[in-house]
Write a structure and sequence with these properties.
Distance between the termini: 56 Å
Strand content: 35-45%
CATH topology of the largest domain: Pnp Oxidase, Chain A
Order of helices and strands: EHEEEEEHEEEEEHEHEEEEEEEEE
CATH architecture of the largest domain: Roll
Shape: elongated
Helix content: under 10%
Largest sheet: 10 strands, antiparallel
Radius of gyration: 24 Å
Oligomer: single chain
Length: 299
């Protein structure tokens, strides 16, 4: 709560609308500082660029149609010995959503635990909610993500995948922005890249590692999509200039040749070195399939 009062300007009321805000049914978690214009904030193309752009994904969609709880504390009040009550603090908003995802998808959120994001809210009637920036652009509300490392619930299976959001700036809610989306939530879900799970088949040896690829949370093998070196990116390594230089595939088994000093004198990784890889398939503009990051470690 500010200790400086703003000038209050009297304003009119809507002549035709007294509609209430409906419930939140999805969270669009974006990288801090991801902004959109008023047009791209509510267009399918603008939101597809956030969740699937091949030039860089900056957001992930988390449906919470299984329900959520608004956990925001009540406003802090102080009452004097003369029974004079006043507000002394605005609480920071909080919610816990029950994600409508699979167990394997929930596991991918473990890496988001404790990190800061900007969170846009998608409401049940197709309204999208964010906060207006001073520059006139719109972004999500700044907050931290928390997930629960726990055994399955004993009584209500819908509570299997809770996602908590602790919002950090009540001032952003004072500048909230809402508008009707030009698309349905199902349309946005359809353009989110399909997840592919990587698993080790044969450990790295003589420059090669063999990985199994299956559609996430299934036993369906994924063939063909990552069958070229250009489809693989090295996200991190403790060796210099590491790259995937060659790939072959047979029935969902991908043989990757990984070299260090790839642009100079290519050499095999040695004991203690590692590379974190991700497979990425796209249609030229947007990702269609993405693997989990996979760490190849040389024994």
């Amino acid at each position: 709560m500010s200790n400086i009062c703003s000038v209050y300007n009297y304003q009119g009321l809507s002549a035709d609308c007294t509609a209430l805000l409906q419930k939140v049914k999805a969270l669009l978690i974006t990288t801090k500082g991801t902004t959109q214009t008023a047009v791209t904030f509510v267009s399918l193309a603008g939101n597809k660029s956030v969740v699937a752009s091949s030039s860089g994904v900056t957001g992930m969609l988390i449906p919470i149609t299984r329900g959520y709880t608004r956990n925001t504390d009540d406003i802090e009040e102080n009452t004097s010995n003369l029974n004079y009550t006043e507000k002394t603090m605005d609480p920071l908003p909080r919610l816990e959503g029950l994600a409508t995802i699979a167990a394997c998808d929930y596991k991918t959120l473990f890496d988001a635990d404790g990190k800061e994001f900007d969170v846009q809210l998608i409401l049940n009637d197709g309204i999208k909610m964010g906060t207006m920036q001073s520059a006139g652009t719109i972004k999500g509300f700044r907050g931290r993500i928390a997930v629960k490392f726990d055994v399955p619930p004993s009584d209500n299976a819908a509570q299997s995948y809770p996602v908590r959001v602790y919002f950090d700036d009540v001032g952003e809610f004072k500048e909230f922005y809402i508008d009707k989306m030009d698309f349905r939530l199902s349309e946005l879900k359809d353009v989110v890249p399909a997840g592919i799970a990587l698993g080790l088949n044969t450990a790295y040896s003589a420059g090669d590692v063999i990985l199994n690829a299956k559609k996430r949370c299934t036993n369906t093998v994924y063939t063909g999509g990552f069958a070229s070196a250009a489809k693989w990116e090295v996200l991190e390594s403790n060796a210099d200039d590491v790259d995937v230089t060659a790939v072959s595939e047979a029935n969902g088994q991908y043989t990757l040749t990984i070299k260090k000093d790839a642009s100079g004198t290519p050499a095999n990784l040695v004991s203690g070195e590692y590379a974190i890889l991700q497979g990425r398939d796209d249609d030229g503009s947007f990702f269609t399939y993405l693997t989990n990051p996979y760490k190849v470690v040389v024994a």
